[in-house]
Amino acid sequence: MLTPTDAPPVSEKAYDPSEFNQYVMSTYGRFPIALKQGKGCLVWDTQDREYLDFVAGIATCTLGHAHPALVETVVQQISKLHHVSNLYYIPEQGALAQWLVEHSCADRAFFCNSGAEANEGAIKLARKYAHTVLQIEDPIILTAKASFHGRTLATITATGQAKYQKGFSPLVPGFAYVPYNDFEAVKEAIASLDTSERRVAAILLEPLQGEGGVRPGELEYFLRLRQLCDRTGILLILDEVQVGMGRTGKLWGYENLGIEPDIFTLAKGLAGGIPIGALLCKQFCDVFEPGNHASTFGGNPFACAAALTVCQTLEQERLIQNVQERGEQLRKGLRAIAAKYPQLIAEVRGWGLINGMELQAESPLTSIEIVKTAMEQGVLLVPAGPKVVRFVPPLIVSAEEVDRAVAEVDKAIASLA
Ligand SMILES: *Cc1c(COP(=O)(O)O)cnc(C)c1O
After folding, report:
1. Ligand 1 test: best mutation among 28, 58, 148, 155, most atoms within 8 Å of CB?
2. Within this chain, do residues 58 and 77 fall inside the same structural domain, yes or no?
3. How many domains does the chain have?
4. Exposure class string for 250-259: b at 16+ Cβ within 10 A, else e
């Protein structure tokens, strides 16, 4: 049986970007390397250069690369049964749903394949709830400016950033935007949108804005939102696609905010890099009926077995405690760098192992320059907007690896300063 360490590499030579671009649509600005293998928090490119991976497939490879438990599960499951259909009961899906329900505030789960698809499901569920329970003819979903919810038409509309929407009009009706962490703005929006047919039915937010610059939600804001939703019947939906599954040092991002959502969505880290998405809700708003929503691949035995292994490994390896400790260590290291370059670095912030280093607005330095220089030094990082460098390593990252990443970032910034 092949194991990741003796698997043949995809290519012995460095990958030729022009050849690649001849066949693949140019939707991404790519860095000029191709990765061929990984182990733990390390990855190797086609020229055998080693990198410390603090991107983890953008907060996705929860257990790093080639984790023995995940390898074992996916090899076994694909040899046994990988896909059937939701025409039949799928025991692995039931077991995963049970684990998620028993470890969260939710009562029910629906499985799909990505974050955008999970959020689409949440939008549909909220609209159906609005029509059938709240009796709103024209329901509005409030979302935040600088948010990110995915790339389908409904989720780019939910995403409160013009750059993702430009060129794709007409957008989906039924959304309105408020600044994040501003409770008064929510109250004003609800009041101003209220007509006889039209009303706010749901508020969709990230517990911490990931793509929008690693901006944590404020406790007071979410507490007041929760009270407002309880009072008005408006649904509170949290997009946990990036922060769920232990990344914040708690299993769910909402645990940092002292509240429970009515609905939340998962994807990225849920199966550690095997595609899966999930929509979870409390029983009172579980208004889907047979035929209302579906997904061919959603919740297949392969993806669910992988996700269940990620869930069990989080517990067995006590990874959430590691996230708390390594997160503290990383922020301390990055803040020491920030203290050396106050003219370049404005702030280091985050929860657990989702952290951002924000550059001074006045400084000409951009996040992409730091990411490129760090890559040359052997550390993979990812921007979260033009002025924030994001650090989202696998949750298994060791103390030595955090020290090494900090040392290399220090060197990268010194060379740019
Ligand atoms: C990545 C992300 C999404 C989109 O997930 P996809 O799997 O790329 O569709 C949605 N919401 C948040 C918060 C994300 O970080």
Report:
1. 148
2. no
3. 2
4. bbbbbbbbeb
108 domain-assigned: yes
- Cα 383 to averaged position of ligand 1 atoms, centre (Å): 15
Rg (CA), the chain: 22
Q: 189: helix, coil or strand?
A: helix
Instruction: Tell me how far the alpha carbon of residue 242 lies from the centroid of ligand 1, in angstroms.
Output: 7
Peptide bond before residue 170 is cis, with ω within 30 degrees of 0: yes
Residue type, 346: A
Domain residues for 250?
70-317
**322 and 297 share a domain?**
no
Q: Give the residues surrounding ligand 1 with Cβ less than 6 Å away.
A: 114-116, 119, 148-150, 206, 210-211, 239, 241-242, 267-268
Q: Are residues 204 and 95 in the same domain?
A: yes
Average of per-residue pLDDT across 146-154: 98
pLDDT band at 259 (very low <50, low <70, confident <90, very high): very high
Contact yes or no for 363/338 (Cβ under 8 A): no
User: Can you give the pLDDT at residue 295?
Assistant: 97
- Model confidence band, residue 2 (pLDDT cutoffs 50, 70, 90): very low
- Is residue 2 situated within a structural domain? no
* Residues 39 and 114 both lie in one domain: no
Q: Do 254 and 364 belong to one domain?
A: no
The Å distance, Cα 211 to ligand 1 centre, comes to 9
Element (H, E) at 198: strand 198-205
Mean pLDDT (the chain) is: 96
Whether 150 and 267 share a structural domain:
yes
CATH of the domain at 356: 3.90.1150.10
| Pocket perturbation via mutation, ligand 1, pick of 211, 279, 354 by most ligand atoms within 8 A of CB | 211
Which residue among 263, 287, 317 closes a domain?
317
How many angstroms is it from 7 CA to the middle of ligand 1? 30
Could you report the per-residue pLDDT of 3-15, keeping only the tens digit for each?
445 555 555 555 7
Atom of ligand 1 nearest to the CA of 209: 13
Band (pLDDT 50/70/90 cuts) for residue 1 is: very low
Binding residue positions for pyridoxal 5'-phosphate: 115-116, 148, 239-242, 296
80 plus 154 within the same structural domain = yes
120 in Cβ contact with 339 (< 8 Å): no
Residue ending a domain, among 268, 302, 317, is 317
The residue ranges of DSSP E strands in 303-378, in sequence order, are 345-351, 354-359
Q: Which pLDDT belongs to residue 416?
A: 95
Residue 16: predicted pLDDT: 84
With tokens 């899966």, the residue in question is: 276
DSSP lists the bridge partners of residue 354 as 351
Q: Write the CATH number for 269.
A: 3.40.640.10
* Spacing, Cα 411 to ligand 1 middle (Å): 31
